[in-house]
From TrEMBL:
GO terms for cellular component: cytosol. Coiled coil: none annotated. The keyword Oxidoreductase applies. GO terms for molecular function: oxidoreductase activity. This is Aldo/keto reductase family protein. InterPro entries: K_chnl_volt-dep_bsu_KCNAB-rel, NAD(P)_OxRdtase_dom_sf, NADP_OxRdtase_dom. Pfam families: Aldo_ket_red. The keyword Flavoprotein does not apply. Belongs to the shaker potassium channel beta subunit family. Residues 15-311 form the NADP-dependent oxidoreductase domain. It comes from Paenibacillus soyae. Keywords: NADP, Oxidoreductase.
Length: 312
């Protein structure tokens, strides 16, 4: 496993990290979820990601119970706050009340005194950014949060947060978690350039386009019964014949390099120096074993040109 610094911080995270969205505490059997986390740790993956909203806290609880077997200082643990956790008017968003209460609830479920990274799961237009940043800064000062992050914020929003933090000497955002893969490259325009200027590393989710870039789909009319696309309509809509054809062409390139198409897709993401880690999901231990092999793979310029031609 290879490691990269998270933004402009001194924290080092594995190039491949393990997430728990839609999996742990959900449709993945507990035994497989536990084995996937144990396998990841054994492979040198030190970065584990969850959120309070994932299965309404069940994912955090399962992750916390599993990781307790390992020394706390040996791994980086992240969770998030923003999405509704109840029906009340203050059970969502980034108000000081919700941020504080949800951090304490997450720590209890995770069974730990602190999280390494606490993300604002989305931007909250209803809460003054200064209020959110002050709440996060207090959690950092209390030792309950070590680093502050955001997810799917625009470059403009991150720049505003940095300006406020610098003005009032608050803890700065050092990581953003956006979607990024061969079929969704919006962060290349503004987010990555700002990340490079502002010292914000990208920890990207859905690097395999929710399974599409693993090559498991041969046709829109032949969706595997155990795939996410078979269970979730919005994912099924993302699987098109055009994309499947491109994945088949990418698989040919991968084969020439003795890689799977999934490993090629992950190595392609990690070509970006501003990407600190690619966050994958795994419903079985074998999946994390395969994905971990993408760490440290360097793609030559000619290979990158071929990939661009396929994706064009």
């Amino acid at each position: 496993m290879q490691y990269r610094k998270l933004g402009r911080s001194g924290l080092k995270v594995s190039e491949i990290s393990l997430g728990s969205w839609l999996t742990y505490g959900g449709y993945v059997e507990r035994e497989n979820a536990v084995k996937a986390m144990q396998t990841a740790y054994g492979l040198g993956i030190n970065f584990f990601d969850s959120a309070n909203v994932y299965e309404k806290g069940a994912a955090e609880k399962l992750m916390g119970e599993t990781l307790k077997a390992f020394p706390r200082e040996s791994y980086v643990l992240a969770t998030k706050v923003f999405w509704p956790m109840g029906d009340g008017p203050n059970d969502r968003g980034l108000s000081r009340k919700h941020v504080m209460e949800q951090c304490h609830a997450s720590l209890k479920r995770l069974g730990t005194d602190y999280v390494d990274i606490y993300y604002c799961h989305r931007h909250d237009p209803e809460t003054p950014m200064e209020e959110t940043l002050r709440a996060l800064d207090d959690l950092v000062r209390q030792g309950k949060v070590l680093y502050v992050g955001v997810s799917e914020w625009t470059a403009t929003q991150m720049a505003e947060a940095h300006a406020i933090a610098d003005r009032y000497l608050l803890d700065r955002i050092i990581v953003n978690q956006p979607i990024y893969n061969m079929f969704n490259r919006y962060i290349e325009k503004d987010v990555i350039p700002y990340g490079e200027r502002g010292g914000i590393g990208q920890v990207v989710f859905s690097p395999l386009a929710q399974g599409l870039l693993t090559g498991k789909y041969s046709s829109v009319n032949d969706i595997p019964a155990d795939s996410r696309a078979s269970k979730l309509e919005h994912m099924r809509k993302g699987v098109t014949e055009e994309k499947i054809q491109k994945v088949q062409e990418l698989a040919k390139v991968a084969s020439e390099l003795d890689l799977t198409v999934g490993q090629l897709a992950l190595a392609w993401i990690l070509r970006q120096p501003n990407v600190s880690s690619a966050l994958v999901g795994a419903s079985r231990p074998e999946q994390i074993e395969e994905n971990a092999k993408a760490a440290g793979v360097t793609l030559e310029a000619g290979v990158l040109e071929r990939i661009e031609q396929i994706l064009a």
